[in-house]
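protein under study:
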Amino acid sequence: MPHLLLSVLCVLLLAGCANVPLESQPQVVPGERQGPGSGDVVPDPPPNIDPLSLVRAFVGATLKPGQNYAAARAYMDEQSRVNWRPSRSLTIIQNTFGTVYDTSPKPDPNTQVVNVRGVELGTLDQNSAFVPGADQALLQLKVRKQATGQWRIVDPPPDLYATESDFSENYTPVPVSFYSDAGTFVPDRRYVVAKPQSGLPGKVMDLLVSGPSPSLAGAVKNLLGEPVEIDTNVKNLDDGTLVVPLTGVTGVTDDVRKLMAAQIVLSLQYVTNARIRILADGAPLVPNHPDWRANELPSYSVSVSPGFEQLGLATVDGRIRSLGDGNPVPGPAGNGGYDVVSAAQSLDGKRLAVVERIGGGAVRLRIGDLGHELPPVELGGSTLSRPTWRSGTGEVWTVVDQVSVGRMVVGPTGQWTPLGVNATDLVQQGGITELRFARDGARVAAVIKGQLWVASVVGSGDSVSLREPRHLQPRDLEDVLDVDWDAQDNLVVVTNSPSQPVVRVTMDGQRLDAFNSSNLTSPVHGVTVASGRPIVVADANGLWIASVLGEVWRPHPHTMKDADPFYPG
């Protein structure tokens, strides 16, 4: 283990325990390599290790593979090794953290309390979902000198702490799929222990059967919920086929069985390349179709992806122009009949919603067919955010005066009617300046006081709520100006930051990656993304495109200064 941690331990070992330092300086703890398996003997800590180094090594051993946290138990006294019952949740901290002795006076010189101080990035909850956080982490561990003269942890709390590097090395993210009313599958990003790899399909199936994480509960359906169960262990046959045995499927229609098979295959494709045999009480789940591969499934994303003929639009100087040729769109939205502030195009490209400036600083919303007159909608308010279309419903949402969400629903006669949205959980976080639907309709992304938030969309008909708001990357993502959804499980965000003007963030906030900033002039004020299309951003000089991280931004073929681009949705 050629790591910095062991180097530090060796130096401390030479120094002995007589002169124990009062504090260890914060340092980067590298991710541990794969540790001993469940059948291996776990070595004791180095002899004469001091309490601070003992605790640091304990944190580093938390995620080492082994039976029942055996590597971490090695740093405890004999009684604690037997009695410790670690929590199912895990706190993830930055790689750089410190250990320091608690300053409270201790009557026993052979007992010390060591505080682990670091920055919490988030927690892995009992549903194996990441919950972002930004608190200062504090873990207290009592350390006692044993009869052998060696320091060991005693009475350890159930809290589990691990560094970001150790977490990334030992866990793998899996977008577990759940069905939505929009006719598509929605990814629910969960994390499973990466090794042994042969056990991953069983772990993913356990997550499927247990249902969506709290952040998505109510926004999707679990086709594999009760009374469906995994009959016996998920296993590989000698020919490589992965067998998924279910029970409790009696009475389920063939159409739902096909959706159940799709939910399983879409989720397992991230952890296996094998042919998947799905059985229900020993017989094929779908009659005459026992075995499945991902390429055999219909495309459930068609209903939530804009057609390739839809090249996107942009608002420029009060008019809407095509990103395909740079020309104004037909009708008053393109010829200057309206003074357009912002706009959004329906997923099928046929409708347009625009926020129109009507003088005196007032605005109003218009919705109608692209290329025609857009009737105004009765929606009060001094300010309206750029509209966003809810997939599968034809609804248009906009934020009114940054404090309430207006929801426009079209009736049989084509009349648009405003309905309410219970957005209390989100609005209480602050003024909302941008709101974007994920194209599967299950989530929204919001910009609140320059910060990025995500919430789930729960309910249908007259009752819809925004629930479980999550603040993504609270420490590293500030001055957010705009956001859009890249596919279903990532967001692309533009900020006022010169160092990272464009970033990609996972939908749970666990990971942030910065795009190349070359050629861009801060601030980058607009962004639009859609599956299979280049990312388009707008800065002070015009429009720029790129497709992947690290790519240098190129001028858009029809770049326009002061443009705000948008793909359908």
